[in-house]
Design goal:
Blueprint: H1 4-8, H2 19-39, E1 45-47, H3 52-57, E2 71-76, H4 80-87, H5 89-95, E3 98-100, E4 107-112, E5 120-121
Parallel strand pairs: 3-5
Antiparallel strand pairs: 1-2, 2-4, 3-4
Length: about 120
């Protein structure tokens, strides 16, 4: 189970969350923890909340969902989570999550709550 502290990575101390960010963080953690329970796996956050310069250091998109607490990157060193989700897109749909194409994210999985045409998308 991923905790709020793991997701925030201590960055909320210097950059406190707005009310909307707090709601978004709670929402994505509920969805991702449900997903991890469904997959019967655990992992760790490699990138959660990324205010300002943290997003730039990570070469994040200018309007990254990490800025608004609507995205999380999870460690997936062997690509197993990405593979399972690619083969079972209905799990993403059930959880209300979208995943960046795991072929583009070696060693980690990006999940977010931004609605798109495809559950698995290319950046």
């Amino acid at each position: 189970m991923i905790t709020l502290d793991e997701f925030l990575m201590g960055r909320d101390k210097q950059y406190p969350l707005t009310e909307d960010q707090q709601k978004n963080a709670t929402d994505i953690l509920c969805r991702v923890n449900y997903l991890l329970g469904w997959l019967r796996t655990s992992t760790r956050v490699t990138s959660g909340y990324r205010p300002g310069h943290f997003n730039r250091q990570a070469n994040g998109a200018k309007n990254s969902n990490h800025l608004t607490c609507q995205a999380v990157d999870l460690a997936d060193p062997k690509g197993l989570i990405g593979k399972q989700l690619s083969e079972n897109k209905h799990i993403l749909e059930e959880c209300g999550l979208w995943m960046e194409n795991p072929a583009k994210t070696k060693g980690w999985v990006h999940l977010d709550t931004k609605m798109r045409k495809n559950r698995i998308f290319n950046p």
